[in-house]
């Protein structure tokens, strides 16, 4: 998956987001920076086509852990902005009043505007480097 990196908060609190521990689901391979969601009350990788509510972004690597093992997650809030990668040129998608989903590789899928919770707020140094907010979060 592509890494999401905290950039800023619109609330003026630009410190690192809060970290909380949540139980992980079975057979997850998660890396620092992976966007995650809850599935049956457990942390799972942000799934392509169904990333409708963000729990947050992984704050630790987690591979082959027993289901229920606690893992650290940067808790997502709707006032946060995260640096990410888009699947294609995102120029026409900035502030487009649409929410986007993820690809299988964990990047922002600008071709999928159904069921996602990611809003592109601005471009970075290239047309595929994007700054995003999660429109719908668990908290």
Describe this structure in words.
- The protein has 2 domains: 13-75, Head decoration protein D (Virus Head Decoration Protein, Chain: A); 80-134, no CATH class.
- It contains no helices and 13 strands.
- It has strands at 5-9, 19-23, 29-30, 35-39, 42-45, 56-58, 62-63, 70-75, 80-85, 101-102, 108-109, 118-123, 129-134.
- The strands form 4 sheets. The protein has a 5-stranded antiparallel β-sheet, with no helix packed on it. A 4-stranded antiparallel β-sheet has the order 1-9-13-12, with no helix packed on it.
Sequence-ordered SSE layout with sheet pairings:
Elements: E1 5-9, E2 19-23, E3 29-30, E4 35-39, E5 42-45, E6 56-58, E7 62-63, E8 70-75, E9 80-85, E10 101-102, E11 108-109, E12 118-123, E13 129-134
Antiparallel strand pairs: 1-9, 2-8, 3-7, 4-5, 4-6, 6-8, 9-13, 10-11, 12-13
């Amino acid at each position: 998956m592509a890494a999401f990196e905290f950039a800023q908060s619109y609330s003026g609190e630009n410190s690192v987001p809060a970290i909380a521990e949540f139980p992980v689901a079975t057979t997850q391979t998660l890396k620092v920076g992976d966007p995650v969601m809850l599935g049956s009350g457990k942390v799972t990788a942000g799934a392509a086509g169904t990333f409708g509510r963000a729990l947050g972004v992984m704050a630790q690597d987690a591979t082959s852990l027993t289901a229920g093992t606690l893992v650290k997650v940067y808790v997502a809030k709707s006032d946060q902005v995260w640096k990410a990668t888009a699947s294609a040129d995102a120029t026409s998608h900035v502030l487009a009043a649409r929410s986007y989903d993820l690809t299988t590789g964990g990047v922002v899928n600008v071709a999928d505007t159904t069921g996602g919770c990611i809003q592109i707020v601005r471009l970075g140094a290239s047309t595929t480097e994007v700054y995003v907010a999660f429109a719908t979060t668990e908290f």
